[in-house]
Amino acid sequence: MRRFASDGGQPGVADWRTLKLLLPYLWEYKWRVVISLSFLIGAKLAVVGVPLLLKQIVDALNQPKAALVVPVALLLGYGALRLASTVFSDLRDIVFAKVTQHAIRRVGLDVFRHLHSLSLRFHLERQTGGVSRDIERGAKGISSLINFTLFSILPTLIEISLVAGILFAKFDWIFAAITLTVLVVYIALTISITEWRTHLRRKMNDLDSAANTKAIDSLLNYETVKYFGNEDFEARRYDANLHSYQEAAVKSQTSLGLLNAAQAGVIAVGVTVMLLRASSGVVEGKLTIGDLVMINAFLIQMFIPLNFLGVIYREIKQSLTDIERLFKLLGTHREIQDASDAKPLQLHGGVVRFENVKFGYDPDRSILHGVSFEIPAGHNIAVVGTSGAGKSTLARLLYRFYEINSGSISIDGQDIRNVTQASLRAAIGIVPQDTVLFNDSIYYNVAYGRPDASRAEVIEAARAAHILHFIESLPKGWDTTVGERGLKLSGGEKQRVAIARTVLKNPAILILDEATSALDTTTEKIIQAELKDIARSRTTLTIAHRLSTIVDADQILVMEQGTVVERGSHRELLAQNGVYARLWAMQQEERSDAMVAA
User: Fold this and answer.
1) What is the tens place of the pLDDT at every residue in 502-549?
2) Reduced to 3 states, what is the DSSP secondary structure of residue 239?
3) DSSP secondary structure of 566-591
4) N or C: which end of the chain has fewer CB within 10 A?
5) Structural domain boundaries of the chain?
6) Please, are residues 40 and 155 in contact by the beta-carbon 8 Å criterion?
């Protein structure tokens, strides 16, 4: 992926890089692009032809007894050219519409896919509000850039070139020189002031993303805000960003007024000089009234679009800035990638093996220190330990959300770095502690385990997870919406949905990541029984906090500070009277105290 210059680097270079990345998306419909450009040129030829015919009409009517000879053919031609310019422009828009929308769709899809291909590290560090706003602005920026560049700047340049050529051919060189001089001064002034204003737009984008990020984060944590009564604090924090954005926006608007005034001055001087020159020619008999009318018509046709050049150039620069941020997301390095010779995982029972695995989320902070263990096919290995011991890290590494620093993780003898990520994750199912659901129907969330499953299979998975009766008892049944992150359901209900979709996925390897630690004792026992059912005959890694839930595991690993300090069955570990025995005694004491207090 390409790297982009930072905002404070060379924006011009970044703009060209952005255009270079965008062009292939447009060229996928090259025949539409070519036809659209043909219509564009046709429209401009018709527009330039209008003043030429207007000159002929005026000169024809400026003859003696003109009232007796009406130039009907010229008038019809004038009307035809007017119509042609409009029709060609409309045809250009019709043909090119699919190119623009296709490019927006393809870029958006590529960014979406790329974001899903990035490592968990990126998604833990990203700010959702800012990323969503960058994608939204980038999509709009593509549409704006195409419209302003192809349908405003390019037609104007074509028209100016044609007009300058006609003035040079039909009159003396001074008319063309005045036209080009005004054009160069106007464009140079516009570009210089707009470049100066561009950093304001970049700052506004940053402030807008920051404000949106804070708003989204605050709303997602609505309950936390209410718990601590921090509504006013959140409002002040949000307003601080809005105030900074307001100041930048005011500066931008003020500088726009300066730009418009300067542009108007250049155009006024240019028009005045041209008309003075043409009027002198009429008085001296070198030019006709028709010539004067034609020059005036050319000036009007040229300078009306130029009046908007500042706005158009500014919009183009803003669009390039917005698209640059979009492509910057697309250019984010993928930490986890399939090897060039990666093959699909071949399952032969699902034996999982960690061998001397060392890993740290940061180079200076190691989490796992040479962890080794094996989960035989169909067995349940439990991992326990204090918080921060590295238990959940094992699950993330098995899913290959991160790359290990050294050692190896294999399934049925195949190093997971040598198989495709898609086949690896298809073989693993997880029931996490914090089940996050999509803000959609219960059916959608259960079916998410295998989207191509039939309705009968989805219903059977819900029955296996003992949630079918609950679903059917709801007023809307399967169509019940679960709310943002599934907040309309209780903890136990969410866990059953998670179990159901994992059952539907039917994985060979199962991870239970503290799946019941957030539930009450009664619900925990019920769901533990359900988990035991779905774990039967599957290779299972159980990460547990409550030791009472894993007493029947085939083997228990006790971790401390990233290493396995004890391993064995529940009875064996108690007999060793070590770390596990102390944890067991502590939890039993806490349980007794809770029962007494109740």
Assistant:
1) 889 889 999 988 767 656 677 677 777 777 878 888 899 998 888 888
2) helix
3) EEE-HHHHHHHTSHHHHHHHHHHHHH
4) C
5) 11-330, 345-427+508-598, 434-506
6) yes
Question: What's the pTM?
Answer: 0.65
Nearest to 92 by CA among 145, 137, 43: 43
Nearest Cα to 353, choosing from 278, 408, 293? Answer: 408
CATH fold of 345-427+508-598 reads Rossmann fold (3.40.50)
Q: Facing residues of 481 across strands?
A: 441
Question: What residue has token string 């219960």?
Answer: 442
Closest Cα to residue 569, out of 579, 586, 555?
A: 555
Query: Which phi and psi (to 5°) does residue 100 adopt?
Result: -60, -50
Q: What CA dihedral angle connects 56, 61, 62 and 66, to 10 degrees?
A: 140
| CA dist list (Å): 480 to 50, 99, 441, 506 | 64, 39, 5, 24
pLDDT tens digits, 456-514: 999 998 988 888 888 999 888 999 888 877 778 887 888 888 888 888 988 999 998 87
Considering the domain delimited by 11-330, tell me its CATH architecture: Up-down Bundle (1.20)
Report the C-alpha gap between 328 and 330 in whole angstroms.
5
Collapse the DSSP code of 450 into the 3-class scheme (helix H, G, I; strand E, B; otherwise coil) and give the result: coil
Output the CA angle 151-154-159, nearest 5 degrees: 105
Cα–Cα distances in angstroms (integers) from residue 336 to residues 199, 404, 421, 422, in the given order: 34, 11, 9, 12
Other Cβ atoms within 10 Å of 105 Cβ, number: 13
d(CA 382, CA 375) in angstroms, rounded, equals 10
Q: Which H or E run includes 532?
A: helix 521-535
**Is there a common fold for 11-330 and 434-506?**
no
282, 300, 301, 299: which is closest to 59 by C-alpha?
Answer: 282
519 φ/ψ angles, rounded to the nearest 5 degrees: -100, 160
Distances in whole angstroms, Cα of residue 511 to Cα of each of 383, 392, 400, 433, 590: 11, 10, 13, 11, 27
Q: How far apart are CA 133 and CA 390, in angstroms?
A: 35
* pLDDT band, residue 591 (cuts 50/70/90): low
